[in-house]
């Protein structure tokens, strides 16, 4: 088949063959795969009404649209699939329990507490933590590491339960969105004095969508006006029928304040787990799990709380967690105790990673440091691409003129003290809407202080560096000062947003508006040797100002625009301005086509403030 020509550059047509591209690929990536010129693809896409540069990441629909146009089926590979393929190249898989089921050991349930705001999730998590007999005996102060384990006695056996210590749906859904199934059981907290509220229903929906059994904690039963029976009644409408009413859901009346019912709640969790789940894991395989929380610790560097899901994590293991990797230097539990190993469902703080992974990232232990590093590097590159694709504002074009105008871009590097705030800040910044002409782009983000390499990156690309609760380290400050890199520090998100918004506005090209200065009527035309025609005029309105812009109007039509008042005289003298009601001579430079009764309109272009 002959190659069709688009915009003069040839484009190889496909015959419906499939090309696989990672999400966030650019036209250059596509061009490489189908052996085409990137410019031809840019043109083809432009004809479809989208203007992108060759190296810019393009979203899924656009890639597919373009593919259809040029005869290729474009298969955008999801990050999950891509990651699976990446791991496969190292002969690794995530998520599969290995070995013979008979060898697996039972493991504790992992619980997430959800419910409407103010119904007592945080208090309940506190109460449960304090109810932990073992912790009290250990005498350690419980630290918040994102998850903790308590041990409770059931039918003469001491049994642990793991709680995710960040209440709310966000963490639950965020983890699920990243494909991490962490929660075995949801404790749905409903305040007995308030009843089922919107977020109660939302939590319930999330849990049911994830097919996770629910235990209902009817909280605040100590309060006057508490009506636990009403809660049971209300929830039947959502398919949660209490056991005592013949249903399958356990409801437990509790008070996070008086601590009444906490032991019963723990028992209900275990009974529900035993009844509906078969929680077992292989403790012998290479350990895997999920990151619950990541932060940068001043003394210890990157610290991640991980939940081991299978295998036994040990000190010295080579680990890759999301795009972070390292060797496990130490494992700490929520009491700050050093552990030698962590079994399935055990949350532990891992020290020894080179950077901070994000909540919801999965972790794997691999044979060699080198493998961990390679996986982390590849993931880092992919995350960058994908983020660029979703963050870059699509520029839609109305006409060719606008298409040719170059879009200006404000580049940012965001560094912060933990992954949550960095993500929150990035998300908030990306919501700033200023103008289609200006795109905001985050070229790098990370947890930790601002380093020399951040500044180097900033130098290359004309960037503002934002430090959120972090500072520039060592030589970075010096380099930034010397090279004049704009580094700004914030501790409040809103302040950062305000300033970046102002910076974006500052980048906008000024808008000018025409301000009328004055009009003059031509009474007589003088020929002045060497100068040309001069209009002997009467100022009709406003003021005629020398050097102002002018246009000539004859019989109501503009004869000439783009003129200027090059000379202005009153009688024999030069004047800078002449007011209404006075006569003057106006010279319009080389423009000589002036007739009696013409009107000279003068104006200036003034910058219009943006709102
Ligand atoms: P969250 O938004 O669901 O995390 O709710 P909190 O745990 O922050 O609790 C909200 C408010 O309810 C706080 O003022 C708590 O002191 C109060 N509260 C929580 N549990 C109880 C309880 O069992 N009894 C009483 N009387 N107040 C409670």
TrEMBL record:
<dbReference type="InterPro" id="IPR005225">
    <property type="entry name" value="Small_GTP-bd"/>
</dbReference>
<feature type="binding site">
    <location>
        <begin position="115"/>
        <end position="122"/>
    </location>
    <ligand>
        <name>GTP</name>
    </ligand>
</feature>
<dbReference type="Pfam" id="PF04760">
    <property type="entry name" value="IF2_N"/>
</dbReference>
<dbReference type="Pfam" id="PF22042">
    <property type="entry name" value="EF-G_D2"/>
</dbReference>
<dbReference type="InterPro" id="IPR027417">
    <property type="entry name" value="P-loop_NTPase"/>
</dbReference>
<keyword id="KW-0648">Protein biosynthesis</keyword>
<dbReference type="GO" id="GO:0005525">
    <property type="term" value="F:GTP binding"/>
</dbReference>
<feature type="binding site">
    <location>
        <begin position="219"/>
        <end position="222"/>
    </location>
    <ligand>
        <name>GTP</name>
    </ligand>
</feature>
<feature type="binding site">
    <location>
        <begin position="165"/>
        <end position="169"/>
    </location>
    <ligand>
        <name>GTP</name>
    </ligand>
</feature>
<comment type="similarity">
    <text>Belongs to the TRAFAC class translation factor GTPase superfamily. Classic translation factor GTPase family. IF-2 subfamily.</text>
</comment>
<keyword id="KW-0396">Initiation factor</keyword>
<dbReference type="InterPro" id="IPR023115">
    <property type="entry name" value="TIF_IF2_dom3"/>
</dbReference>
<dbReference type="Pfam" id="PF00009">
    <property type="entry name" value="GTP_EFTU"/>
</dbReference>
<protein>
    <recommendedName>
        <fullName>Translation initiation factor IF-2</fullName>
    </recommendedName>
</protein>
<dbReference type="InterPro" id="IPR000795">
    <property type="entry name" value="T_Tr_GTP-bd_dom"/>
</dbReference>
<dbReference type="GO" id="GO:0003743">
    <property type="term" value="F:translation initiation factor activity"/>
</dbReference>
<dbReference type="GO" id="GO:0005829">
    <property type="term" value="C:cytosol"/>
</dbReference>
<dbReference type="GO" id="GO:0003924">
    <property type="term" value="F:GTPase activity"/>
</dbReference>
<keyword id="KW-0547">Nucleotide-binding</keyword>
<feature type="domain" description="Tr-type G">
    <location>
        <begin position="106"/>
        <end position="278"/>
    </location>
</feature>
<dbReference type="InterPro" id="IPR006847">
    <property type="entry name" value="IF2_N"/>
</dbReference>
<dbReference type="InterPro" id="IPR000178">
    <property type="entry name" value="TF_IF2_bacterial-like"/>
</dbReference>
<feature type="region of interest" description="Disordered">
    <location>
        <begin position="1"/>
        <end position="20"/>
    </location>
</feature>
<keyword id="KW-0342">GTP-binding</keyword>
<dbReference type="Pfam" id="PF11987">
    <property type="entry name" value="IF-2"/>
</dbReference>
<dbReference type="InterPro" id="IPR015760">
    <property type="entry name" value="TIF_IF2"/>
</dbReference>
<dbReference type="InterPro" id="IPR044145">
    <property type="entry name" value="IF2_II"/>
</dbReference>
<dbReference type="InterPro" id="IPR036925">
    <property type="entry name" value="TIF_IF2_dom3_sf"/>
</dbReference>
<comment type="function">
    <text>One of the essential components for the initiation of protein synthesis. Protects formylmethionyl-tRNA from spontaneous hydrolysis and promotes its binding to the 30S ribosomal subunits. Also involved in the hydrolysis of GTP during the formation of the 70S ribosomal complex.</text>
</comment>
<dbReference type="InterPro" id="IPR053905">
    <property type="entry name" value="EF-G-like_DII"/>
</dbReference>
<keyword id="KW-0963">Cytoplasm</keyword>
<dbReference type="InterPro" id="IPR009000">
    <property type="entry name" value="Transl_B-barrel_sf"/>
</dbReference>
């Amino acid at each position: 088949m002959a190659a069709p020509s688009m915009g003069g550059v040839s484009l190889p047509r496909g015959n419906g063959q499939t090309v696989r591209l990672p999400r966030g690929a650019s036209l250059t990536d596509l061009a490489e795969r189908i052996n085409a010129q990137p410019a031809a693809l840019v043109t083809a896409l432009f004809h479809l009404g989208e203007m992108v540069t060759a190296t810019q990441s393009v979203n899924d629909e656009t890639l597919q649209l373009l593919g259809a146009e040029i005869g290729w089926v474009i298969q955008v590979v999801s990050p999950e699939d891509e990651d699976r393929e990446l791991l496969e190249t190292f002969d690794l898989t995530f998520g599969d329990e290995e070995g013979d089921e008979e060898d697996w050991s039972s493991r504790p349930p992992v619980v997430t507490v959800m419910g409407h705001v103010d119904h007592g999730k945080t208090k309940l998590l506190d109460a449960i933590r304090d109810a932990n007999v073992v912790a009290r005996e250990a005498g350690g102060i419980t630290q918040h590491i994102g998850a903790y384990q308590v041990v409770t006695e059931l039918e003469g056996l001491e049994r642990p339960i793991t709680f995710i210590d960040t209440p709310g749906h966000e963490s639950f859904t965020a983890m699920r969105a990243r494909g991490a199934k962490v929660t075995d059981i949801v404790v749905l907290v409903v305040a007995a004095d308030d009843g089922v509220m919107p977020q109660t229903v939302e939590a319930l929906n999330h849990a049911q969508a994830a097919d996770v059994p629910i235990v209902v904690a009817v909280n605040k039963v100590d309060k006057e006006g508490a009506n636990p029976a009403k809660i049971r009644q209300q929830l039947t409408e959502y398919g949660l029928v209490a056991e005592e009413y013949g249903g399958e859901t356990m409801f437990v009346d509790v008070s996070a304040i008086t601590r009444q019912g906490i032991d019963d709640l723990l028992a209900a969790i275990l009974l529900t787990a035993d009844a509906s789940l078969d929680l077992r894991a292989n403790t012998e395989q290479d350990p895997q799990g999920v990151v619950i929380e990541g932060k940068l610790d001043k003394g210890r560097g990157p610290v991640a709380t991980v939940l081991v899901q299978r295998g036994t994590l040990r000190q010295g293991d080579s680990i890759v967690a999301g795009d972070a990797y390292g060797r496990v230097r130490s494992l700490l539990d929520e009491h700050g105790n050093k552990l030698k190993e962590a079994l399935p469902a055990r949350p532990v703080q891992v020290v020894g990673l080179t950077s901070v992974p994000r909540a919801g990232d999965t972790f794997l232990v691999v044979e060699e440091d080198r493998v961990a590093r390679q996986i982390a590097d590849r993931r880092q590159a992919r995350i960058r691409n994908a983020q660029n694709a979703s963050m870059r504002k699509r520029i839609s074009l109305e006409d060719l003129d606008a298409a040719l105008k170059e879009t200006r871009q404000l580049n940012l590097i965001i560094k912060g003290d933990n992954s949550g705030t960095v993500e929150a800040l990035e998300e908030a910044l990306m919501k700033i809407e200023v103008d289609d002409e200006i795109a905001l782009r985050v070229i790098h983000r990370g947890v930790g202080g601002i380093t020399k390499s951040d500044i180097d990156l900033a130098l290359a690309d004309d960037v503002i560096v934002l430090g959120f609760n972090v500072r520039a380290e060592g030589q970075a400050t010096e380099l930034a000062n010397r090279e004049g890199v704009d580094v700004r520090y914030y501790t409040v998100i809103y302040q950062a947003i305000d300033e970046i918004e102002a910076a974006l506005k500052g980048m906008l090209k000024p808008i000018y508006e025409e301000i009328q200065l004055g009009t003059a009527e031509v009474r007589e035309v003088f020929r002045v040797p060497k100068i040309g025609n001069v209009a002997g005029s009467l100022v009709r309105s406003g003021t005629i100002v020398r050097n102002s812009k002018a246009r000539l109007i004859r019989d109501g039509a503009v004869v000439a625009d783009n003129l200027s008042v090059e000379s202005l005289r009153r009688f024999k003298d030069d004047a800078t301005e002449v007011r209404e009601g006075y006569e003057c001579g106006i010279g319009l430079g080389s423009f000589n086509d002036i007739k009696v009764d013409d009107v000279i309109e003068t104006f200036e272009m003034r910058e219009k403030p943006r709102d």
